[in-house]
Write a structure and sequence with these properties.
Strand content: 15-25%
Number of strands: 12
Shape: elongated
Largest sheet: 7 strands, parallel
Order of helices and strands: EHHEHEHEHEEHEHEHEEEHEH
Distance between the termini: 31 Å
CATH architecture of the largest domain: 3-Layer(aba) Sandwich
Length: 284
């Protein structure tokens, strides 16, 4: 979903959290409202800049009044307004009501959602995707989207009744990566039909008949890493679609890994040949 905004956006000053416009934006904290409006919110100037640079369509830019003397922000605000974005200059109290934080970000952007249709995916030789079956935790989902971006994945497939990638918690956990990769949402039956067209590896995580994840030859072919639900893992009908089932050996007493951690371990191994040494590494 990506709507055009051609008119010049309006500028308004708002000091009360009870303002109707603010109430409507706060309403995006509920999935039913995000679905109805096709919108979602993200926090922070860096994320907003990243989204704009990647061509995402922004409906509203909310910012603290004390940013109006900062040239860097004013340049971004002017660009957003020219693109049809409405600008709301608000008080700290208003920002706090939108982000549910004691120390809220000074900028909040409201963007139109954008999803890729499963049928439109076209495979390249070294394409890499991560598939998630009914992932429940928004923090896990956001972290996996960020990890997918880090390893150069094309995108993330959300299969079945997964948590909403546009929730504030999930978007926050992506650290802006939601603007860099494709997001696909599909039902299980739709995924099973599409799987027939996938001419590459499907790597599932499963204990039955599984091999060490490091023993797979991931190279020079499309790869889809398929991860199961946090509580129950992959269901049998998806396990049967995998070309390989893998496990991560563990030496300690714990019998399982967090979903996002396990996904990251396998994803980096699958992409190891294609990853180049970065100029710098940021961990936060």
């Amino acid at each position: 979903m990506n709507r055009e905004r051609k008119s010049i956006g309006q500028i308004k000053q708002i000091t009360s959290p009870s303002n109707t416009i603010i109430k409507n934006i706060k309403g995006l904290q509920l999935k039913k409202n995000r679905d109805a409006e096709g919108l979602f919110a993200c926090e922070g100037l860096k994320l907003v800049i990243n989204a704009i640079d990647n061509g995402w369509n922004m409906k509203t830019l909310i910012y603290a009044h004390n940013l109006t003397d900062q040239p860097h922000f004013l340049n971004i605000a002017a660009k957003a307004r020219t693109n049809g974005t409405d600008l709301l200059e608000v008080s700290e109290k208003v920002l706090g009501s939108l982000t549910r934080r004691d120390n809220p970000q000074l900028v909040v952007g409201v963007f139109f959602q954008k999803c890729t249709e499963l049928s439109s995916i076209k495979l390249g030789t070294n394409d890499f995707w991560i598939g998630l079956d009914r992932v429940r935790d928004p923090g896990n989902l956001g972290t996996i989207i960020r990890t997918a971006d880090c390893v150069g994945a094309k995108g993330v497939l959300l299969i079945g009744d997964s948590t909403d990638p546009w929730s504030l918690e999930a978007v926050r956990a992506t650290m802006g990566s939601i603007f860099n990769i494709e997001i696909v949402r599909c039902g299980q039956s739709e995924f099973i039909k599409w799987r027939v067209e996938w001419d590459g590896l499907v790597i599932g995580t499963h204990l039955k008949g599984a091999v060490d994840y490091r023993s797979i030859d991931y190279h020079n072919k499309p790869v889809l890493v398929l991860m199961g639900n946090e509580q129950n893992g992959l269901p049998e009908d998806l396990v049967s679609l995998c070309t390989d089932n893998v496990l991560i050996p563990m030496a300690g007493k714990a019998d399982s890994l967090n979903l996002a951690i396990a996904t990251g371990i396998i994803a980096f191994e699958a992409r190891r040949t294609y990853l180049k040494m970065p100029k710098n590494i940021s961990v936060n």
